[in-house]
Design brief:
Blueprint (H helix, E strand, L loop, with lengths): L1 H26 L13 H8 L8 H5 L7 H15 L11 H14 L1 H9 L6 H5 L2 H6 L22 E2 L8 E2 L47 E4 L4 E4 L9 E2 L2 E2 L8 H4 L28 H4 L46 H4 L8 H8 L6
Antiparallel strand pairs: 1-2, 3-4, 5-6
Helix pairs in contact: 1-4, 5-6
Length: about 350
């Protein structure tokens, strides 16, 4: 019995020693050895022409110096399965891998990560799926995972229980509690083909019209196909206010926003999860007011309006909150008459034209 236990301990020790060696083998060679496994080739080829092509695989996916023993054992297991011919048809990121990738992103993109953590898109599974007010009004379904939980490997019953409007609700998978339901890979395809990010300071200044609007990585992760759809390939909806077609911003980036903040089938503004601006702010795109990864809107009014508007109203003191049903100044649907309660002033040009006799014919 002692010999059996000793042999078993020796095998475990040998496996533990070999695991980092396996990792080192694959991380050496500038990532080329990663592609020696044919199932990795579809990931390696886009990386070679991506904005991250100067960053080695180990920077994001771990190295021989990674202290997490499970990481090395997992690599050794994959190598063994490959030698046995037990390879998956397709390799995809699950929820845990997506969370780990987000942590790797934060190592370089610290400002973006800090803004994301401070904003609404960093909401955890606990925050999203245990919302009593929402769950009582809306029955949870698998489609909830289309936006909140794109990388989760199962269905809604594996996330929360019970599936009803009575509750009390709890996570069926407690390990999800503090994981982000919308990690970086929800909106970014890291291996997407694109140029390196260029410095735009005094030694490499780029004229305004030629400056980059969006990074090539901007893409929507489609849970059904388990693939990213580039933002340029995403459609912009044709929105309506009643029977009238709305003027839409031509900013293609907001096509990504509409994948989750979408209207119902009637395409009416403010239906479903839609946030399309109508009336005074019709035609203004999402990212004019919603800043980057944190979605902060504090400076959105002052960006276009002076401290005191021409009519004497301080727009920054108004309740512009979308969630407030009582707000008459919600920037998504505010009307001129909501502020000008005594009547909307005539435009100066129209008034001058009418006074000179050229106004109406």
């Amino acid at each position: 019995m002692k010999k059996i236990l000793a042999s078993l301990a020796l095998m475990i020790a040998a496996g533990a020693a070999m695991a980092p060696v396996t990792t080192f083998y694959f991380e050496s060679g500038g990532g080329r050895r990663c592609a020696s496994c044919h199932e990795m080739q579809p990931f390696y080829d886009p990386w070679r022409s991506s904005s991250h092509r100067q960053i080695g695989c180990e920077k994001c996916h771990g190295s021989a110096l990674t202290l997490d023993a499970s990481f090395h054992m997992n690599n050794a297991k994959r190598a063994w399965n490959h030698l046995q011919g037990q390879t998956p048809e397709e390799i995809r990121f699950g929820q845990k891998a997506a969370e780990e990738a987000a942590e790797a992103c934060a190592e370089c993109h610290r400002q973006e990560a800090a803004s994301w953590r401070a904003g609404p898109h960093s909401a955890t599974y606990n925050r999203i799926f245990l919302d009593r007010k929402h769950n009582a009004a809306n029955l949870l379904i698998d489609d909830c995972l289309r936006c909140h939980g794109m990388h989760y490997e199962g269905g809604i019953r594996g996330v929360v229980t019970p599936i009803d409007r009575a509750g009390p609700w709890r996570l069926a998978s407690p390990e999800l509690a503090d994981m982000p339901s919308m990690p970086c890979l929800s909106c970014h395809q890291i291996h997407r083909e694109g140029p390196l990010l260029q410095k735009t300071g005094a030694d490499g200044r780029v004229a305004g019209p030629k400056q980059e609007i969006a990074r090539p990585s901007l893409a929507f992760y489609d849970r059904r196909t388990r693939r990213h759809v580039p933002v340029d390939d995403l459609p912009l909806p044709a929105m309506l206010e009643g029977p009238r077609p709305l003027k839409m911003s031509r900013d293609q980036r907001q096509a990504l926003c509409y994948q989750c903040h979408a209207p119902v089938a009637t395409m009416q503004a403010a239906s479903g999860d839609d946030r399309t601006a109508i009336r005074v702010h019709e035609g203004i795109g999402c990212l004019v007011c919603h800043a980057g990864h944190g979605e902060q809107t504090r400076a959105s009014c002052s960006g276009c309006h002076p401290k005191m508007s021409n009519c004497g109203l301080d727009v920054e003191t108004m309740d512009t909150t979308f969630r407030s049903a009582d707000s008459k100044h919600d920037i998504h649907r505010v009307k001129c008459g909501d502020c000008h309660v005594k009547g909307v002033p005539r435009k100066k040009e129209a008034a001058a034209s009418a006074a000179s006799g050229f106004g109406a014919r």
